[in-house]
Specification:
Chains A, B: Its cofactor is Zn(2+). Chains A, B: Pfam families: ADH_N, ADH_zinc_N. The structure is a homodimer of 342-residue chains. Chain A has 342 residues and is α/β, with parallel strands linked by helices. Chain A has 2 domains: 196 residues, Medium-chain alcohol dehydrogenases, catalytic domain (Quinone Oxidoreductase, Chain A, domain 1); 138 residues, Rossmann fold. Helix content of chain A is 28%, strand content 26%. In chain A, 54% of the residues are buried.
């Protein structure tokens, strides 16, 4: 089959690789119907050391079950399935608590930008889409594998609820879907910090009440001006770089929560008396346990109440994946969907 | 009147200073019945630059109201009052939310180690003790000004409830009262990390189910051994130094909460993928809004159900305050109570 492989920074290629096969009795093999490039795929795209042997990449996909191991229950061959970017056994304490990303038998997919993929822990991970699926829903269903529940996780972890004031840092797909999530959870002030007008316009449609294009101290001052000098209860940080963290510190209200879902590209950060401690700021977040949220988020996608799939602004074939990375990295494209049959 | 003043590191003196007087109509003047030395007083005791002019110090006191400004309501001259270490107006959004430590008209007392003290925002801060007060309750009432609600705040912010597993780092007064608080809130496993047997013995009486005397990697390994390798849901960090933070990272369970109430003596700390993010660890805490908790904690103190005052292991007069600092700094004494009449 054909698959995308990353060989180093800026070096993604499409090549023929062996078809995936069942290895464990808990595995499935899924034919990929739609996949996409994630903002977090851009981190290795920036920094991966060069290697002759490429690594398969991609962790978001909706597909059709082709084969199932003997121990897989709950899905059938032929089902259309949504695959959370983290697989998990759905049997341990962490899965039962809704923290599937910490499942000891879990892991992260790699290799979804391909025609097919092997899915470990298929019972605990895959969610079959009920009924006949309208093809027009595929983009929104695809967001349920990662970016939409990730935005939702940011908002839930921050305690966003009716009347909350929220700042969202980042106008990528996760940031925009954090806006949508905050709106669904009842936030009344949603300030989107981002500078790409096409994206922030979509953010307004998703529920942003204010857009702040400035960054750093100037951006913080604008957030404070909107909130009577106080900052917002919740800051949803969907970038992962230090300037975004610093913006979060400046935008959060005393007693508020900074909820991070952008993978931190730093290890140390200010957390002392002058940053988090003095005003009881909480820092939370992490990889979203997507599997915990799908049943909750799916109905509004299926009935068209929300259209998170609007974050996709380009559809390409598998051979164009390298160009998809380039377009997202150059911010020509917000999020690229890949149809492996094209 | 006589008062303790800090002139520099290791240099606390008792001297005659002017009596405090009402300045604002919202002030009270309170005669100090009992005060004490706090673990956080030891931070300036270690690091304050030398100065000819000393600063009055101390922020925990129970006293008798001597004078009241025109705008003070809710307390009367002659009342015995508990004074939260942070004063606040009890009129702003933050006070109404129970975050009095972020009140814009609030601040922190300084000068309680004295015969009298001026109390700003007396209406919003002072809590009159009902009825005739049994003198034997004074130590426990004094803990309600800071260390007991601070331990309680650590546990509440960490979400400790029935069945929680908890690690408490630090066997000082706050750590021991965090143990007591976790027990009151229903925690079933309470691991106290501390190496002073007299203190950890008191911790066991307060509710600790395990004591870990080792520090660093060895201490972390012991906590993990007690918890099937997982760590605890909550880690209450009552020290404030970096090794305690690192211990907290090692002791917390995936999805758990590190709740800090020891004033951080560092600004930067690990918070990235490998420390907090990967397993959705939440970092919370800050100065305890003591005023928010007093009504809740007072009844069990008054009826003797709990005896948080057992953290005091020495009573001294005002002239002995310098010796009290030395004894606490040398860990000869857990917590020193000061009776200004002695």
């Amino acid at each position: 089959m054909r698959a995308a492989l990353i060989h180093g920074a800026g070096d993604v290629r499409v090549a023929d690789v062996s078809d995936p096969a069942l290895v464990e009795p808990t595995d499935a093999v899924v034919r990929v119907v739609v996949t996409c490039v994630c903002g977090s795929d851009l981190h290795p795209y920036h920094s991966k050391p060069d290697a002759e042997e490429g690594d398969q990449i991609g962790h978001e996909f909706v597909g059709i079950v082709e084969e199932l191991g003997d121990q897989v229950a709950g899905v059938s061959v032929g089902d259309m399935v949504i695959a959370p970017f983290a697989y998990a056994d759905d049997a341990c304490d962490y899965c039962r608590e809704g923290l599937q990303t910490s499942c000891p038998n879990g892991g992260f997919h790699s290799g979804a930008q391909a025609e097919k993929i092997r899915v470990p822990q298929a019972s605990g991970s895959l969610v079959a889409v009920p009924g006949d699926v309208d093809q027009a829903l595929l983009p929104s269903l695809l967001t349920l594998t990662d970016v939409y529940p990730t935005g939702w996780h940011a908002a839930v972890q921050a305690g966003v609820g009716p009347g909350s004031t929220v700042t969202v840092i980042g106008d990528g797909a996760v940031g925009l879907l954090a806006v949508l999530s905050a709106k669904q959870l009842g936030a009344t002030t949603i300030i989107l910090m981002g500078r790409h007008t096409a994206r922030t316009d979509l953010g307004r449609e998703f529920g942003a009440t204010h857009v702040v294009a400035s960054r750093g101290e100037e951006g913080i001052a604008e957030v404070r001006a909107i909130t009577d000098g106080e900052g917002t209860h919740a800051v949803l940080e969907a970038v992962g770089h230090m300037p975004a963290y610093e913006q979060a510190l400046g935008a959060v209200r005393p007693g508020g929560v900074i909820s991070r879902v952008g993978v931190p590209q730093y290890e140390e950060a200010p957390v002392g008396f002058g940053s988090l401690f003095r005003h009881n700021i909480t820092l939370t977040g992490g990889p979203a346990p997507v599997r915990a949220y799908i049943e909750q988020l799916l109905p509004a996608v299926l009935d068209g109440t929300v259209e998170p799939g609007r974050v996709f602004d380009r559809v390409i074939g598998l051979s164009e994946v390298p160009e998809g990375y380039r377009a997202m990295d150059d911010r020509e494209s917000l999020k690229v969907m890949v149809d492996p049959t094209r």
